Amino acid sequence: KFEAYIFDLDGVLVDTAIYHYEAWKELADKLGIAITIAQNEKLKGISRIDSLKKILAWGNVTIESEKELKRLADIKNNIYVNRIEHINEEEVLPGALDFLKQAKAKHIKIALGSASRNAKLILQKTQLAQYFDYVVDGNMTQLSKPNPEVFQIAQKALGVTADKCIVFEDALAGIQAAKAANMRTVGISDNNTLLEEADLVFTDLTNITPAFLDKKLLA
Ligand code: B16
Ligand code: MG
């Protein structure tokens, strides 16, 4: 049986991806760069500073100064933090709360593995913090997904081996990070972007049970 579940936050447990997109779009507009929905997919799971660098590259804008990069990243984050100021339990994605409760009842260890520096704030606002044995957020990692660091920190803190972990992710970079950590993967996606990479793909966490995952992934 699997002993630990490691969840991504944005796009798996909470519906905050739209606020990231809106905030990046607002900053990009100011810089005269248009970002498409397809480009936005490539920002999912990517750290704030790396997301900014990608957007600048798409717009052929060169900024060398670290200070200016930080200023722009701060502008985006201020817009984002404003957007999420009033979020609550309603932002929790379908099936997520019930699945966390099922995992807890089965004594499966639960960690967060998020690239977001705002993860703890979001867990509090959505009342999800109580379900987690350990939380890894973007303040605790040096390397962005697809690097496996974020999930390996969670694994070590939970005291389990990688083959006993399932990672739940909505981003390609996150699935790649989990695979690099030798963990099994459940993709959460309403399009086909994760189908070729993840072990299993669902549109959300509705109707999934721990017993079903053991059966499918241990076969
Ligand atoms: P912040 P996740 C990621 O969260 C988001 O998917 C990504 O869009 C965002 O840029 C990143 O967190 C950093 O977030 O600016 O709040 O530190 O999907 O890994 O939970
Ligand atoms: Mg995500």
UniProtKB/TrEMBL annotation:
GO MF annotations for this entry?
beta-phosphoglucomutase activity
Q: Does the keyword ATP-binding apply?
A: no
Q: Which InterPro entries match?
A: B-phosphoglucomutase_hydrolase, Beta-PGM, Beta-PGM-like, HAD-like_sf, HAD-SF_hydro_IA, HAD_sf, PGP-like_dom2
Reaction(s) catalysed by this chain's protein: beta-D-glucose 1-phosphate = beta-D-glucose 6-phosphate
Cofactor(s) the protein requires to work: Mg(2+)
Q: Which Gene3D superfamilies match?
A: HAD superfamily/HAD-like (3.40.50.1000), Putative phosphatase, domain 2 (1.10.150.240)
Q: Which UniProt keywords apply?
A: Carbohydrate metabolism, Isomerase, Magnesium, Metal-binding, Phosphoprotein
Give the enzyme's EC designation: 5.4.2.6
Top-rank taxon of the source lineage equals Bacteria
* Family membership: Belongs to the HAD-like hydrolase superfamily. CbbY/CbbZ/Gph/YieH family.
This protein is called Beta-phosphoglucomutase
This protein's species is Sphingobacterium tabacisoli
